[in-house]
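Worked example

This section walks through a single chain of length 308. The input is the sequence exactly as stored; nothing has been trimmed or padded.
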Amino acid sequence: MPAPTIIQGPACVSWNSYDFYTRGNVTINYRYDTWNPNTAAYGKLGARFKSRMAEVAFTPAGMYTAATAVKYWPNSQADVGKSIFGSAPASVAIAPLTGNKVTFVRGGVSKWPALKLSPLGTVWQEMSFLCLGDPALDPTNAAHVQSIGATAFPATFDETKMISPRYTASFTGADGAALNGVEPDDEGFRVEPIFETRAMTLANFGMVDSIITSIGWRARFRPLSLTEAQISAAVGLQGSTVVQPGDAIGRATDLVIAGTGLTWTGKRAGLVDAALVYGPGEWRQGEVAFVGKSQFSAGVVQPLWVFA
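Given that input, the structure is written out below as tokens.
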């Protein structure tokens, strides 16, 4: 008996006219949602189909420009209530160096990558796409979900976009003190998108869409430039600037994390957590966390963040 054909090698993911080169593996997960009829006398009779989806998961290599950040964080608060797939289907293609390319007819970013802003790593963390069938095609159509064909590996990689600068942060605490040039620990600054969705399903078709229900952000780091007193004052524990029940955590000022080639601004930021750590060889400055708040101008929601 001959050995099986060896099929292996890396791939690049393409979506919305952009190529996502990856740090490691690309994984396609085909997932079934099922239900199981049950009887008192014989128990469960066997799984029956309810819905299907495919997930494409990977960690981007880390290329960054301000213009392409929207490929990773593609929506804004103004998109709440809209589909993650947009107004027209956009394909997701997984093109390996060798082998066959898999192209899903309809995909959208379902897990936005967190940012890790540090000179000890690249920018983007793990992300994923949700892929569903084309709503204009019957499920019995051979091209309803995906196609498989000859590969064509993209040639758009640019190592100069793989940035890892030194970053510092600037913000204003609850006490009104402006704190600039704040240094992080080795973990750098972690900015986590808050992206919530709800699946839309039909009994006769399964999952047909994913609707955005909420968008926000949370940033975390250890502020090694600050003293215990500065941290305590910034979080608004007491006194004339104390944060009290019902007060908005977000402020009128922003959290700005800046390095050469990348500046991320969290709009209307406020401290929501802080810590002090006591122990030998431990930085006294524990982790602080920031969140933002919404703002409207003439009824129009304003950006929650800015990439530059």
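What to look for: The chain is about 0% helix and 40% strand.
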